């Protein structure tokens, strides 16, 4: 059960990273959104005027952090559960904030919300079944 949870968690984190890294880089280098097929008009009700800051967050947190945590999960490191839990929570919050400011505009929003929930559940399973002492 623990091994399966860790592998599934690693696969989910790799999936999120594969989406987050190129999309985030595109938003960083083309903050007008043209690289990802979006317009800054959707940001009018948000605190951002362009996609640079959201792209930076997407690249670092949903991209690089998920990539690092995927490796941690695949090796069943003692921080697998904590990493997965934190990133699952970040992903759920990311989607909720996005939908709050720009609305439900793409099928990927609910998909990644569900992915975040699954990541949280798998992390909880890993944490409760391993009973690792973090002290």
**Which class best fits the helix and strand makeup?**
mainly alpha
Total number of helices: 4
What's the oligomerization state?
single chain
Most strands sheet: none
| Strand composition percent | under 5%
Stretches where pLDDT is under 50 for at least 5 consecutive residues are none
What is the residue-mean pLDDT, rounded to a whole number? 92
Listing every helix as H and every strand as E from the N terminus to the C terminus, the arrangement reads HHHH
Radius of gyration: 16 Å
Q: How would you sum up the global shape?
A: elongated
Number of extended strands: 0
- The portion of residues assigned to helices is over 70%
What features would you describe in this structure?
It is a single chain. The protein has 135 residues and is an all-alpha fold. The protein has one domain. The protein is built from 4 helices and no strands. The model has no long low-confidence stretch (mean pLDDT 92).
Layout: helices, strands, pairs:
Elements: H1 2-29, H2 52-74, H3 80-102, H4 108-130
Defining key terms:
135 residues, 4 helices, mainly alpha
Describe this structure in a few short sentences.
The protein is mainly α. It has helices spanning 2-29, 52-74, 80-102, 108-130. Helix content is 72%, strand content 0%.
């Amino acid at each position: 059960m623990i091994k399966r949870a860790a592998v599934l968690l690693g696969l989910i984190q790799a999936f999120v990273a594969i989406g987050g890294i190129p999309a985030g880089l595109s938003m960083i280098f083309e903050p007008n959104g043209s690289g990802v097929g979006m317009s800054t008009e959707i940001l009018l009700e948000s605190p951002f005027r362009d996609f640079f800051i959201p792209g930076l967050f997407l690249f670092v947190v949903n991209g690089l952090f998920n990539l690092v945590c995927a490796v941690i999960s695949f090796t069943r490191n003692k921080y697998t559960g904590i990493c997965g839990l934190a990133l699952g929570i970040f992903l759920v919050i990311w989607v909720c904030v996005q939908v709050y400011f720009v609305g439900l505009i793409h099928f990927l929003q609910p998909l990644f919300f569900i992915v975040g929930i699954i990541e949280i559940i798998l992390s909880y399973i890993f944490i409760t079944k391993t009973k690792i002492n973090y002290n």
